[in-house]
Amino acid sequence: MTDLKTPKDTERIVITGVGLAAPGAATLAAFRANLLAGKSGVGTIDLRYMGVHPAGLCSFDETRYRKKRENKRGTRAGCIGVYCAGEALTDAGIDFSFYDPARTGIYVGLTEHGTVETENEVYNIGQYGYNVDYWTHHHNPRTVLNNPAGEITMTFGITGPHYSIGAACAAGNAALIQGVQMLLLGEVDLALCGGLSESVGSFGIFASFRSQGALAEHDDPTRASRPFDLGRNGIVIAEGGCIFTLERLDQALARNAKIYGEIGGYAINSDARDFVLPYGPRQRECMELALKRAGMQPQDISIINTHATGTKQGDIEECHAIRETFSGCNRTWVNNSKSHIGHAMGAAGVLELAGNLPAFSDNLVHPTINLDELDPACDLPGLVHTTAREVPKVDAILNNSFGMLGINSVLIVKRFLA
Description:
By secondary structure, this protein is an alpha/beta fold.
């Protein structure tokens, strides 16, 4: 590993808490167990206007951190966000006796927000002849983009900055990167950051993917999400969320915090080519830039968690980029988490990162599932499928997240070494 310099503890950012809600799991331990066992969290949803479709739905204690009436006034994304933030703070052992709430930032990545609320309100007033007198007065605060982050601040009394990062399906990584940057700039002392998705509530999102020929179909919903498989036919839409607590290392050490891993490097770039079609060469450049900023070589990466969603061209473009970047890296393993939970949009990248973090402790690479016949164009050296693989050691995880309008994000987390 190339070490360009030895950063001070004030310049090192570590992950000290994880809170998540994923299809089939409401804790990191349960999520990890499902991933290692190759257990799918995908079920079905009976969607207004569209009928039954495969989807990833979450089940968690919605009133653990706020009351039912507050959930009713807020949004599904806010509800998920409050739960994940509360779990992250609890996991990190943070009760704001050490940190100042005014020096705490909330940065939440979103692919979409407001669509669900608007669709629901239009449907509701349709029952009353579209009389807008029946339109809820809660609509505006529910649909502003900072809503989920704002709901977190109100629940926990956090008075520092809060806002959302709109970066399509790269949003979770982008929000984590924002938290890192704000900590390094000294703008905040603690960052709660991650991604959320309430997209299963929107028939418009399902209908749009179907019109693009990109909505997955399968008689068995648990087998519908099948990245890299020759028979893949699109995306399984999922809801979910994941929030991390990020701290500067000196502060984390001062309070004897548990440390999951250290942020190694990151990058965001743009294809600048198409509204929806991905472009492998720019994805490769994004991975290379993240490696450069981390002071790492490709062979230093132990696990690549792929973005692959189960679309034909998307999977192929990413595989081309990975093969070109990691050629000859025979100790680098590749997996995919969407095969287990579907595509959680703005929450996808951070959920997938969280699911791989325990590999620093157990040295296991979770498998890609539903891979019956590998598409030759997606043949990646080191691809782990069907069953988990034990490896000698996991030193670094590279997490890919790419989104519409050609936004690419790559985040590298490395094993924490004192």
